[in-house]
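Q: I have 320 residues here and want to know how they pack in 3D. Can you give me a structure?
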Amino acid sequence: MKIPRRAVLGLIGTALLGRPARAADKIVGGTLGGQAPLWPFYVAARKGFFAGEDLDVEINFAQSGPAVAQQLTGGAFDVALSLGNDNAIHAIDKGAPLAIVRIIGNTAPYALIGKPELKTIADLKGKTISVGQANDITTVYFERMAAANGLQRADYDELVGGVAAARLAALKAGVADAAFVLPPLNFQANAAGYVTLGYSADYVKDLPFTGMVVRKSWAAANAPLAKRLLAATDKSIAWLADETHRDEAIDVLVSAARARQEDAEASYDLLRRIGYFEPSSKVSRGKLQNLIDAQRALGNADASLTVDRLVMPGVTELTD
């Protein structure tokens, strides 16, 4: 299957440490294209955390979460460095030999953006909100936010908007009164005069957003390699969390992901405030069960799906 874009980042870190690229073990990674959510991996390459674990990590970008899961299942990737946990759960529930080995995004960074005349989430009564698909996890995040502000499901209309860019387009076109989007779209919307009504992370703290997912056959044959990847990720996230590195981290995102300076600055401050990146490789069994329960409520997971089916023995470190 064709991979749309490719960037080899592990070699950069190797060069920075002065180590020969041939000494590194190759990992073929895949992910959904993006900027801020991939920050730890850009940092791991630029600051030498991959190279410090003798890793040459190749990052391939796919066009959607399901596409990442499909290519991982088919063997195009060894690891999905960052994949929506809902995409992973859907694939595993359908029999894909995949496993979650780490949480990357511990909270969802969704922003609820509205027309300028709106002031609060409660003002959405009688309004139309552009969310994802009808059975999409975005509806869970939004409906919890709405309920916390006194709105019942009958108080507003949900417009199926697809991806975040399409949801924002619906707001700009006047088809929706508010839209559920991801950074940096919310910052760009603010610059255009739209208001931020709230962030999902301030309301929903028990549903991890993204995870690192492996193909089980690869992980079984390369468990030490997978653990070194986890170690490099831990170090990268710890570096990113240190506020003294803010300016350098912003430079990394601008350079590696071609982010706009102002978007990178705003993204750093937001992701730090909401505790987006999970600092530990330990995976909460309780939070995985919450994800399963949410997917069952949406009709996306079978009753037989268990936490143990989601993880990789010997690699995933589960904690209660």
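Q: Anything worth noting?
A: The two ends are 38 Å apart (CA to CA). Residues 1-21 have pLDDT under 50 and may be disordered.
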